[in-house]
């Protein structure tokens, strides 16, 4: 039965609606063939048919070509916890016409009803992103404990996300997220969904199986910590780096490094971050706030002066004449 975090759904609810074409994206690196096979077999076993995209991050395994997958080998590894490979896989799924995409890490696996449950949850709630609970498993695959951390409110693991088309704008974050934050990629993605107001719904049933290499999971379960496990060493530096960011930089990451007009900016360019923020404020009609940032940008980078004039001119409509004139007077004054 669903937990108090889940939504009970009549299977008939989904009838009469266009079928979702689901792609499942799995980045892999140097996992053993057996671990990869368990992952893929769980996709094949889904009660709702899916297309599996397996993206090799620099270390393709030839036997995967013989499976019923779309196998995408990348020429080199990227050292970003699978982010680049996820983005490539998501692009392939989009190109193939998928209108729903889930992610499954190579050392994890789904319960057979996982995707069907996500589709039922979407049908019942209309949420753009649906999420599930997860169970923590031993390195040998045996069950350890149901994860309470993965609650669909404060945290969602990468393999527990199910994106529908209304949330596809978030997928670019896999490709644009600075590598520094890739160890906490799921937390960044979840924060972006919340900040951008994308609707979500959660089913607390643990239909994602997480094969844990983290010692604290074994301590939670009260069992001996096996060899080959430890602390997520790369996560702490990422958390510390995240704490140093101001809200504008966090918002910049959430946006996929673009402004309201869809222009892309370099995360390492402080002027670009400020300029993108001002453009977003202008698009919201918050003209005075935008103008103040523009003035600061102009003082630091006079080459932006012409761009600002062009932008003010674009806003010079009858309804916004006063706002445009104010921006121009600030620039010329």
Report what the structure shows:
The protein has twelve helices and nine strands. The chain is globular, with a radius of gyration of 23 Å. Strands 1, 2, 3, 4, 5, 6, 7, 8 and 9 form a nine-stranded mixed beta sheet that branches. By secondary structure, the chain is α/β, with parallel strands linked by helices. The chain has two domains: 222 residues, Spore Coat Polysaccharide Biosynthesis Protein SpsA, Chain A (Alpha-Beta Complex), CATH 3.90.550.10; 76 residues, no CATH class.
Secondary structure topology:
Blueprint: E1 22-28, H1 33-44, E2 51-56, E3 70-73, H2 83-95, E4 100-103, E5 108-110, H3 114-125, E6 129-137, E7 143-146, E8 161-164, H4 173-176, H5 185-195, E9 200-211, H6 215-221, H7 235-243, H8 247-254, H9 270-283, H10 287-300, H11 305-314, H12 321-332
Parallel strand pairs: 1-2, 1-4, 2-3, 6-9
Antiparallel strand pairs: 4-8, 5-9, 6-7, 6-8
Helix pairs in contact: 8-9, 9-10, 10-12, 11-12
Rounded mean pLDDT is: 83
Oligomer: single chain
Instruction: Based on Cα principal axes, name the global outline.
Output: globular
CATH-wise, what's the superfamily of the largest domain?
Spore Coat Polysaccharide Biosynthesis Protein SpsA, Chain A
Report the sheet-strand fraction. 15-25%
CA gyration radius, whole angstroms: 23 Å
Main β sheet profile: 9 strands, mixed
The helix content, as a percent range, equals 25-40%
Q: Would you tell me the structural class of the helices and strands? A: alpha/beta
Question: What is the architecture of the largest domain at the second tier of CATH?
Answer: Alpha-Beta Complex
Contiguous low-pLDDT stretches (5 residues minimum) are 1-16, 313-320
Instruction: Count structural domains.
Output: 2
CATH topology of the largest domain: Spore Coat Polysaccharide Biosynthesis Protein SpsA, Chain A
Number of helices: 12
End-to-end CA span:
67 Å
Number of strands: 9
Report the CATH C-level class of the largest domain.
Answer: Alpha Beta
What's the SSE pattern? EHEEHEEHEEEHHEHHHHHHH
């Amino acid at each position: 039965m669903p937990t108090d975090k889940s939504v009970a759904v009549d299977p008939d609810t989904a009838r009469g609606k266009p079928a979702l074409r689901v792609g499942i994206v799995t980045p892999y690196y140097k996992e053993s063939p057996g671990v990869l096979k368990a992952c893929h077999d769980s996709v094949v076993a889904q009660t709702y048919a899916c297309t599996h995209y397996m993206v090799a991050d620099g270390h393709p395994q030839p036997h995967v070509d013989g499976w019923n997958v779309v196998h995408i080998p990348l020429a080199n590894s990227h050292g970003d916890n699978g982010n680049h490979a996820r983005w490539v896989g998501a692009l392939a799924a989009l190109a193939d016409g998928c209108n729903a995409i889930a992610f499954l890490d190579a050392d994890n696996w789904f319960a057979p009803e996982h995707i069907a449950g996500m589709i039922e949850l979407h049908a019942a709630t209309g949420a753009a992103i649906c999420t599930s609970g997860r169970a923590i498993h031993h390195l040998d695959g045996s069950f350890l404990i149901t994860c309470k951390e993965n609650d669909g409110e404060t945290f969602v693991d990468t393999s527990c996300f199910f994106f529908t088309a209304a949330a596809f704008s978030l997928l670019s974050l896999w490709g644009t997220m600075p590598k520094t934050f890739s160890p906490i990629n799921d937390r960044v993605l979840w924060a972006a969904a919340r900040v951008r107001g994308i609707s979500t719904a959660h089913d607390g049933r643990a239909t994602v199986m997480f094969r844990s290499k983290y010692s604290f999971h074994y301590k939670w379960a009260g069992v001996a910590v096996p060899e080959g496990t430890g602390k997520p060493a790369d996560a702490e530096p990422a958390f510390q780096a995240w704490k140093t960011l101001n809200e504008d930089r966090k918002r910049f990451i959430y946006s996929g490094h673009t402004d309201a007009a869809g222009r892309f900016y370099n995360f390492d360019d402080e002027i670009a971050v400020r300029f993108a923020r001002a453009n977003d404020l202008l698009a919201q009609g918050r003209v005075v706030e935008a103008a103040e940032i523009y003035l600061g940008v102009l003082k630091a980078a006079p080459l932006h002066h012409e761009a600002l004039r062009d932008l003010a001119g674009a806003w010079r409509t009858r309804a916004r004449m006063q706002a445009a004139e104010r921006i121009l007077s600030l620039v010329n004054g």
